[in-house]
Write the structure tokens for this entry.
Amino acid sequence: MLLHLSDPHFGTEQARPVRALKQLCDELKPELVVVSGDLTQRARHSQFIDAKRFLESLGCPYLVIPGNHDIPLFHLPRRFWRPFHRFQQCFGSLEPQIETEHFFVIGVNTIKSHHHTKGSISLRQIEHVAQQLQAAPAHKHKIVVSHQPFIVSPHDDEAAKDIPRLMLPALKRWSACGLHALLHGHLHHSAVYDLNQYFLLGRPHPVLDIHAGTALSHRLRHSLPNSVNIVQDDLTIQRYDYEDTQGRFIDKKILWQATSAH
């Protein structure tokens, strides 16, 4: 299984959810932790260090990509000339790739220094990811991770403006190469959509767009709790919510049942 978390925003993290997420990881022992961006609140060196220490403490492999909060906001020279310097000091590649027992996961950096929140994908990135998907083992679930989602609620016009540029060409190309799912953050709430049905891609299986809530930050939206997702080996998606009364992340809802796709 994968543990999918997003938007921990170190610098605004809460101690009790931090301890609870470590406990959940100890209990479930995921084969991979995926963090879909916004590791920090203000891209400060100390915040990246805290994020890295936390991920190292989980004791399992992890893959991280940057979010829009992971580049400087107010220091304009650093934002435009070395936007990812501190991220790369701690985590290396902006577009990592990792293969586990059941999954083949590819990170895509959708953050651009000249945009505040909107995502962007280039033609080069589209083709590079397509080649990686084609080379992936056929029996493994092929997953791409980006910070901004590829689809939002039809009632959320504000969020729709952040959907990455060239999203649809990327989706069509990658789905033709066997893409099974995309993992995102950014909106601080969990959801799952089948892009195969929504965009009429004509694929023989669902292509899931999986959103995670904010894992650790007090920057909650719409009174939603801190939450993370578990992606099971059959692509069933479960949401775990943090419950302060118990000091634990609790299995609260199945966001997607794999058998419902057949």
